[in-house]
Amino acid sequence: MYVAVKGGEAAILSSYELLAEQRRGDTGMPELSVSQIRGQLKLAVDRVMTEGSVYDPELAALAIKQAAGDLVEAIFLLRAYRATLPRLGTSVALDTGRMQLDRRISATFKDLPGGQVLGATYDYTQRLLDFTLLANEESSKDGARSEANASVAPTITPRVVDLLNHESLIETHEVPAGDPAPVDLTRTPLRFPADRATRLQNLARGDEGFLLAMAYSTQRGYSHSHPFVGEIRVGSVELELAPEELPFTISVGDMELTECEMVNQFAGSKTEPPQFTRGYGLAFGHSERKAMAMSLVDRALRAEELGEAIEAPAQMQEFVLSHSDSLEASGFVQHLKLPHYVDFQAELELVRKMRTSQKAGAGKQATGEQP
Amino acid sequence: MTTTTAISYNFAYLDERTKRMIRRAILKAVAIPGYQVPFGSREMPLPYGWGTGGIQVTAAVIGPKDVLKVIDQGSDDTVNAVNIRRFFQRTTGVETTTRTTEATLIQMRHRIPEAPLAEGQVLVYQVPVPEPMQRLEPRETTTRVLHALAEYGLMHVKLYEDIARYGHIATTYDYPVLVNGRYVMSPSPIPKFDNPKLDMNPALQLFGAGREKRIYALPPYTPVESLSFDDHPFEVQRWDEPCALCGATDSFLDEIITDDRGSRMHVCSDSDYCQSRQQAPAGQAAASEEQAIA
Q1: In which band, very low, low, confident or very high, does the pLDDT at A1 lie, cut at 50, 70 and 90?
Q2: Which of A80, A347, A234, A369 is nearest to B172 (CA)?
Q3: SS3 of B257, please?
Q4: Measured between CB atoms, which of B1, B38, B75 is closest to A191?
Q5: Residue among B1, B77, B191 whose CB faces A343 most closely
Q6: Of B53, B74, B246, B247, which one is the catalytic site residue?
Q7: Model confidence at A156, in pLDDT bands (50, 70, 90)?
Q8: Which of A228, A225, A230 has the alpha carbon at shortest distance from A214?
Q9: Which string of DSSP letters, residue by residue, matches B2-33?
Q10: CB–CB contact B271 A5 (8 Å)
Q11: Nearest beta carbon to residue A187 from set B40, B83, B172
């Protein structure tokens, strides 16, 4: 019985030691360094930064190491670290139109200003295990690297949705009067109904697996959407601060982002002509699956605003936003490991009582008595 | 066990601005007994669902002179209670105790101590689901309106359906209560055996739900009534036998399975209560037992 009447503390301390041992693995093998994780497990680092809501590859790599590769646990570590950090300032809104592109694709136009840039992607790899990696050697196709690496010149590349906008074929979102600051979900609890900025924050922090499944459900008839990838772009964007006391902005560095604009058909309503509507996804690093899922769910959640019937789970704000956070979900599901013997005792008594009265009832019926 | 405070974090882990935010929520909660106040719950170094609401409330109200007791399922020694107590020992260095009467601050999960509480003590409840009607109506937008209108028909229908189906109310823990004649409140998953202790309690009772981001409170001497019907009054669990260790007949008993043939014994779930009774001079324990039996 792990809730021994005494000794819980000793058990916890021993558990720490076992955990450290398990994480380290075979001491005959060299220890994995944080810089190796950062350098060679980039996509894991990117996911931990995105859902951990901290853009810091080094700390994300540390969290992955400490969590022995459990990304949800690593996200938890990073979030708990983040929770008490002070807010030093608010950045100027990112301009992804000025992104230095590593990758940019559109599924709606064959060619477009700025061109398509395939970049690094698993999309067209044939998923064959590469046994040269198993032999602990670099893949044989290393030769052509320098040419492929030639970076795209940093220019302003217009977004596909802006191109559609020239014909007024796509909805636009004006900046609301006074440009009000969005709610900070890490400081203000989520309340319903939540506006779009708040929903997007929630989705950006949301679990990739959960969002992927919700997005998938919209493609299988649980809400009707006809989505097209207007554009996915991956690259670096400059982050700027505008201190109140200075008349200019200060660049504080570049951050790598993945942005997805999903374009959806919309039949129009009494006030709006038929046009395309948009779903938006944004994630740290190279996180395409996350950004795409987010944009589909964002669009589905706009059902009420666009006058669509709310019938599917992906369209229900409370359903999606209340269950998207991996910390909340993982914590509450796993709390069932905690002792529940007081509640169980109460249930045990109840079931016994109900069985007794059921038996008594059956006995009475057999002898023809009225209850 | 070291009692030195970890230097790298603020006293009680949370930064002072966060504590102030939580204290404001607590003050509002005290002013409106039973009303769920939303607050900016933080990610804590312990998982959601494991007491983060209680921990944040405790962190916001604890001071260097407090004496802290932490229990889970009535016991000071279950792993989660030990873990939370260690967390506060590491981050505050305050004195801790297992004695209910010596504690100024008691954080607990799923039980209220058996020993009566006094004025000046603060009880902090860990709450998994603050909304008593969540199982009946999952949409918060709707339950908020129901609370505003004091429209609790839904809850009464649920209890009535229990009676129609089973002949009695089949809720055994997290049994809903009406606070100060106004708000229906979840008492957290304490057994309904503990519900009478909520009523007119001289201690300040604070409830924290971290994952659901709500705080609510019962100020000292708040009337708290367990929901019932005139012809089906509220009843608590009773056992046919006394505690096998201390002989108490007035405490909540846990069933302990003692071998693989199904033998079992019943012992107090409140480990401090049980131990103090065992340590008390024999005559005194026997006397109180007789009293209880009488």
Answers
A1: very low
A2: A347
A3: strand
A4: B38
A5: B191
A6: B246
A7: confident
A8: A225
A9: --PPPTTSBTTBS-HHHHHHHHHHHHHHHHST
A10: yes
A11: B40
**Torsion (CA) B228, B233, B238, B240 in degrees, nearest 10:** -150
Chain A residue with the nearest C-alpha to that of B266:
A345
**A205: Cα separation from own chain's centroid:** 5
Cβ–Cβ gap B42/A86 under 8 Å: no
B50 and B80 in contact (C-beta within 8 Å)?
yes
Does B147 contact A at CB distance below 8 Å?
no
The pLDDT, as a whole number, for residue A259 is: 97
A104 has which bridge partners? A117, A233
Is B19 at the interface with chain A, CB within 8 A? no
pLDDT band at A363 (very low <50, low <70, confident <90, very high): low
Indicate which residue of B51, B53, B208, B243 is catalytic: B243
Contact B269 A333 (CB under 8 A): no
CA distance B239 to chain A (A): 9
In DSSP terms, B109 is beta-bridged to B72
Q: Would residue B53 show up in a list of annotated catalytic residues for this protein?
A: no
ipTM computed for the complex: 0.74
* Residues A9, B141: C-beta atoms closer than 8 Å: no
Q: Is residue B167 flagged as an active site residue?
A: no
Q: Which two tokens stand for residue A232?
A: 């996915």
Angle subtended at Cα B142 by Cα B41 and Cα B39, rounded to the nearest 5 degrees: 15
Tell me how far apart the alpha carbons of residues A199 and A210 are, in angstroms, rounded to a whole number. 15
pTM: 0.84
User: Quick one: closest CA in A to B85, which residue?
Assistant: A9
Q: Which residues of A touch B41 (CB under 8 A)?
A: 189
- Please tell me what DSSP assigns to residue B292: H
B191/A83 CB distance under 8 A = no
> Which 50-109 residues of chain B touch chain A by CB within 8 A?
50, 52, 72-75, 77-83, 86, 109
